[in-house]
Specification:
Strand content: 5-15%
Largest sheet: 3 strands, mixed
Helix content: 25-40%
Radius of gyration: 15 Å
Structural class: alpha+beta
Number of helices: 4
Mean pLDDT: 84
Low-confidence stretches: 96-108
Order of helices and strands: HEHEHHE
Oligomer: single chain
Number of domains: 1
Shape: globular
Strand order of the largest sheet: 1-2-3
Distance between the termini: 22 Å
Length: about 110
């Protein structure tokens, strides 16, 4: 998977959700896992899922999963699928500088 492939996948989600969104409504996707590493650092890693943090009660995220989740027509067409991961699995660091002494946090 390459950065441009992930971006193309996310743009497809954006374009499709634009047909279903109410005025002023938005969906923030918090990517985690390999797809996040590929986007941030340009790593060349193999994965077919784009993991996002589950946002409880988000109808728009549910629609995104219905349209781009595993086994959907869009996932088959684009070669990737969206997967929701429960909050806290894996541990998600706070903003940089929010550690006990204001130091940067790294989860390895």
């Amino acid at each position: 998977m390459r950065q441009d492939e992930i971006l193309q996948f996310l743009q497809a989600i954006d374009a499709e959700l634009a047909l279903h969104v109410a005025e002023g409504e938005r969906l923030d996707l918090y990517l985690i896992g390999r797809s996040a590493l590929i986007l941030r650092y340009g790593l060349d890693l193999a994965t077919r899922d784009v993991d996002i943090v589950h946002i409880h009660g988000s109808a728009l995220q549910g629609k995104a999963l219905d349209l781009f989740g595993k086994g959907t027509r869009n996932a088959e067409r684009l070669g990737f699928f969206l997967e929701s991961v429960p909050q806290g699995l894996p541990a998600i660091p706070g903003p940089l500088g929010s550690g006990p002494l204001g130091s940067d946090q790294v989860i390895s």
